[in-house]
């Protein structure tokens, strides 16, 4: 099983969600079974590490995301991944627009895949520590819910 998390820049929300998912999968002994990656719809931060505020936020939660590097969503991702999980509705719209026929139903909000309905993770980029903490709280809650469901 392969999961791809998508946001706009791939330096804040999706690397935090990737880190949270990897950590919760490892705790559940599922890290060999489920592969996780993240991308951005935008190209600005390709090759860059996550935003230092995202790295710090994850580190406060004992998760290391400093080694991740930005990558842009490409059409190949729709073949390589089983589910394409988006941080918010605008990312989902852009992702679905790029998806080939037959792949669109595998694109959804991360919250929906987590069984939490339609919850957006707000972009913390122009905010500060509270906005990053809130994005982490949402992303980690979704990661825990996903791993809980996959464990059953
Ligand atoms: P992200 O946040 O989508 O959570 O990674 C953003 C990071 C960078 C930009 C926008 C959103 N940007 O415009 O550079």
Bound molecules: 4-nitrophenyl phosphate
The helix content is 40-55%
Largest β sheet strand count, sense and barrel closure: 4 strands, parallel
The number of distinct helices, counting runs of at least 4 residues, comes to: 6
Separation of termini? 15 Å
Give the SSE order as H and E letters. EHEHHEHEHH
Q: Provide the CATH superfamily.
A: Response regulator
Total beta strand runs: 4
Structure description:
The chain is of the alpha/beta class. It has a single domain, classed as Rossmann fold. The chain has helices at 13-27, 52-60, 77-80, 89-98, 110-113, 129-151, and strands at residues 2-7, 35-40, 83-86, 107-109. Strand 3 (83-86), helix 4 and strand 4 form a beta-alpha-beta unit. Helix 1 (13-27) packs parallel to helix 6 and helix 2 packs across helix 6. The structure holds 4-nitrophenyl phosphate.
Q: What labels would you give this structure?
A:
152 residues, alpha/beta, Rossmann fold, four-stranded parallel beta sheet, 4 strands, globular, binds 4-nitrophenyl phosphate
């Amino acid at each position: 099983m392969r999961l791809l998390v998508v946001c706009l820049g791939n330096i804040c929300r999706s690397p935090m969600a990737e880190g949270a998912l990897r950590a919760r999968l490892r705790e559940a002994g599922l890290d060999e079974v489920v592969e996780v990656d993240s991308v951005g719809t935008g190209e600005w931060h390709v090759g860059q590490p996550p935003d230092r505020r995202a790295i710090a936020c994850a580190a406060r939660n004992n998760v290391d995301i400093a080694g991740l590097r930005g990558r842009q969503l490409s059409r190949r991702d729709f073949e390589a991944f089983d589910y394409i999980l988006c941080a918010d509705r605008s990312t989902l719209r852009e992702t679905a627009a790029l998806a080939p026929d037959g792949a669109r139903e595998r694109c959804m909000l991360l919250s929906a895949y987590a069984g939490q309905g339609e919850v957006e993770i707000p972009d913390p980029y122009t905010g500060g520590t509270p906005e990053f903490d809130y994005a982490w709280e949402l992303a980690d809650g979704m990661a825990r819910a996903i791993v809980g469901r996959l464990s059953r």
